[in-house]
Specification:
The longest helix has 17 residues. The protein contains twelve helices and 23 strands. The chain is of the alpha+beta class. The chain has three domains: 109 residues, Sandwich (Immunoglobulin-like), CATH 2.60.40; 157 residues, CBS-domain, CATH 3.10.580; 161 residues, CBS-domain. Keywords: CBS domain, Repeat.
């Protein structure tokens, strides 16, 4: 037997280690090292041989990217240690030059996947039990239950110049805002990042013939009228469908279904009864991250124990995958190279019915993602008036986003997972309102395999 030393130097509150030496069934608690803040250590007596192991840090499975790593057939990454008879002294784990790094961790590699040497077969019963439970839970609560004690809702006046409106959206970090009409005393629509893309493309293609001074006075209502005419070819004043909205007494299930079925990102919530008609009826904006965050805050343990959530996402029919993964669902996964023109991204975001595009390097490895909201970075300082989308590369477009939002090389922007990641772990990540989607990558090469969004998850669960 050889006494092996295992160390975790990246901090945390509680750290455990488990591995193939216990058949992944027992967790050893690691002890903080005196005089070395953030370092945890434990000694385990092991017979000679090769072992895989991982660290459980504050409830998240991770591995030490500076140590040797291996990936199994499911894409699960673990650290690797080989012990020989000669290792009479506690071994020093050697540095492995090949680094596996996800885009949203500072140190170590976040695995988000619990060890599971044998994966149970997904059954229709697992699906139906989980769907039924989540459906009942969401039906039991209304939008009013989720309203915070204090919050801010940014509203754009219909008569505001559209140029100024997009600048406000950029400064506030918003990609959708309600449009308020004083004459009707209500919300008449939503101004979105897609509107900005349409205007940008219209200006570039001379569809919108506006001088700079005219653009300064071009109102939100005027733009919405032009957009309506372009989409309907109907006369001015033609009947428009009512704004898709929710009442504060609507159930969370109804709200989620409205968002999913209408393919929108959020919808305004109106107060169901107003005694004072002079009061603004808008209470908040409802969105899918808000729904998931609420139920995860109050029912995390119950949700994460559902049978369906224990399965890896590669075994569940959801998300958009590359055909070569064998998981193709008929929907084309949009991917662009680092040197592709920005105009290609704009076309995909508008016509491909996607909200985010993975950007890859020459070898196909993930660099970052470019989403509809990122285009608003071009509203900063009227940058959009000085660029040509067909000449700007995606690399240059991403640099503009980083500079506008003080990001460093995309850190904390791009969130990833593996095909072996369980649905529970996917939903835990997506319960963070800042995370709208996860790019599915190969654990070693970082090649993009697919993408899974919160909309994909809820659409599947609410069928």
């Amino acid at each position: 037997m050889v006494l092996a030393t295992f160390s975790w130097p990246y901090g945390g509150r509680q750290v455990f280690i488990t591995g193939s030496f216990t058949s992944w069934t027992r967790h050893y608690a690691m002890t903080p090292v005196d005089g070395s803040p953030g370092t945890f250590q434990t000694l385990i007596d092991l017979p000679p041989g090769g072992y895989q192991y991982r660290f459980l840090v504050d409830g998240i499975w991770r591995c030490d990217e500076r140590q040797p790593c291996v990936s199994d057939v499911y894409g699960v990454v673990s650290n690797w240690l080989y012990i020989t008879e000669a290792d009479a002294a506690p071994p020093t784990l050697q540095y492995e030059p090949y680094i596996i790094r996800t885009m949203d961790m500072d140190e170590g590699t976040a695995l988000y996947t619990a060890p599971s040497p044998v994966q149970a077969q997904l059954s229709e019963t697992d699906i139906q039990v989980s769907r039924s439970w989540i459906s009942r839970l969401l039906s039991s609560y209304t939008v009013y239950d989720t309203l915070p004690m204090s919050s801010k809702v940014v509203i754009i006046d219909a008569q505001m110049p559209v140029k100024k409106a997009f600048q406000i959206m950029y400064e506030e970090g918003l990609f959708v805002v309600p449009i308020w009409d004083d004459l009707r005393a209500t919300v008449i629509g939503m101004l979105t990042a897609s509107d900005f893309i349409l205007i940008l493309r219209g200006l570039q293609e001379n569809v919108l013939v506006l001088a700079e001074e005219e653009l300064d006075n071009y109102t939100v209502s005027a733009w919405k009228e032009v957009k309506f005419q372009q989409s309907s070819n109907g006369p001015v004043g033609m009947h428009r469908r009512p704004v898709i909205h929710a009442s504060d007494q609507d159930s969370l299930k109804d709200v989620a279904l409205k968002i999913v079925q209408n393919e929108i990102s959020s919808l305004p919530v109106f107060k169901s009864s107003l005694q004072d008609t002079s009061c603004m009826p808008l209470l908040t904006l409802a969105c899918l991250p808000g729904v998931l965050k609420y139920i995860f805050t109050h029912y995390r343990d119950a949700i994460t124990s559902l049978p369906l959530l224990q399965h890896p996402i590669c075994s569940i029919p959801m998300g958009t995958w590359l055909p070569e993964t064998g998981r193709g669902n008929g929907q084309q996964l949009a991917i662009l190279g680092n040197n592709s023109p920005l105009s290609s991204a704009l076309q995909l975001l508008l016509e491909g019915r996607v909200s985010s595009i993975p950007i890859v390097d020459d070898s196909g490895s993930l660099i970052d993602t470019y989403s509809r909201s990122d285009i608003l970075a071009l509203a900063n300082g009227d940058m959009y008036a000085h660029i040509q989308p067909h000449q700007m590369t995606m690399h240059q477009a991403l640099q503009q986003v980083y500079q506008a939002n003080s990001y460093i090389n995309g850190r904390s922007r791009c969130h990833t997972c593996f095909r072996s990641t369980t649905l529970r772990e996917v939903m835990e990540q997506l319960s963070d309102p800042a995370v709208r989607r996860l790019v599915i990558i190969d654990a070693i090469s970082k090649h993009v395999e697919g993408i899974i969004s919160l909309r994909d998850v809820l659409e599947f669960l609410l069928q």
